[in-house]
Amino acid sequence: MTETASIEITQPTSLVECRRIDPIIDFDRCALANDPVVHHLGICLHTARFRPSEMSPVCADHIASALEAYLKQAHNVVSFPSPAARGGLAPWQLRRAKQMLITRLDEPISLAELARACKLSPGHFARAFRQTTGQPPHRWLIEQRIEKAKQLLVDTTLSLAQIAQRCGFADQSHFTRVFAQLVQSSPGQWRRHWRSGPVAA
Predict the structure, then answer these.
(1) Cα separation of 88 and 165, whole Å?
(2) SS3 94
(3) Separation of alpha carbons 18 and 80, rounded Å
(4) Structural domain that includes position 145
(5) CA 17, CA 184: separation in Å to the nearest integer?
(6) Is 158 inside any structural domain?
(7) Distances (CA, A) of 123 to 8, 68, 76, 83
(8) What is the distance between the alpha carbons of residues 198 and 67, in angstroms, rounded to a whole number?
(9) 161 and 121 fall within a common domain
(10) 20, 28, 42, 157: most buried by Cβ count inside 10 Å?
(11) Predicted pLDDT at 196
(12) Which of 112, 106, 21, 11 is nearest to 61 (CA)?
């Protein structure tokens, strides 16, 4: 049997739920499987689910977002979370996931590992985490890394390269780029501003 990812279109359960998709289930039985874009993105998602060591969680998140956007634009298919995911994570699951992410800011952590700790599948975990926090796991982790970097910029004399390493960024360039995107200031400028105190009016 050819290995394929899967998408399922179910009948609406209400007027609001016109269609529901799950990018991991029953792809080969869906008419959209004939669409080459859906087919190839689906295969990538299948790889992310069943062979997580071959694809980073960040990449998988981007592919899922791309598939969802394409289906909405090209086929007018609207994605809805599964009923189990609508309630988000249980409090213990959210605590465990956040603790794992925060205590390992300086090292990679996979979506599959987080999901196992919460006794969920990776896809279910990612949806439930986003439902609970309003952000995908990777985005939430990046913001925690930036907050840690801010603390180190103000409270220590560590170099930007050292801070980048301690906060889990690939290198100083990666750290500077992400920091500037989220804070609208370079790390060096931000450090100088907060060390010099409030600017006089």
Answers:
(1) 32
(2) helix
(3) 10
(4) 139-196
(5) 38
(6) yes
(7) 14, 14, 22, 13
(8) 46
(9) no
(10) 42
(11) 77
(12) 112
Q: Are residues 60 and 111 in the same domain?
A: no
Statement to judge: residues 146 and 110 lie in one domain = no
If you write DSSP's letter for every residue of 95-132 in order, what string do you get? HHHHHHHHHTTTS---HHHHHHHTTS-HHHHHHHHHHH
How would DSSP label each residue in 43-89? HHHHHHHH-GGGS-HHHHHHHHHHHHHHHHHHH-PPP---HHHHT--
Tokens read off for 79: 């994605």
- Cα 126 from Cα 171, distance rounded (Å): 26
Is 74 inside any structural domain?
Answer: yes
Token pair, residue 90, equals 């249980």
Burial label for 3, CB within 10 Å (0-12, 13-18, 19+), is exposed
What pLDDT, on the 0 to 100 scale, is given for residue 72? 75
Question: Is the Cβ–Cβ distance between 63 and 45 less than 8 Å?
Answer: yes
| Packed helices 137-155 and 91-103: angle between N→C axes, nearest 10 degrees | 50
Q: Which residues pair with 6 in a beta bridge?
A: 24
The count of structural domains within the chain is 3
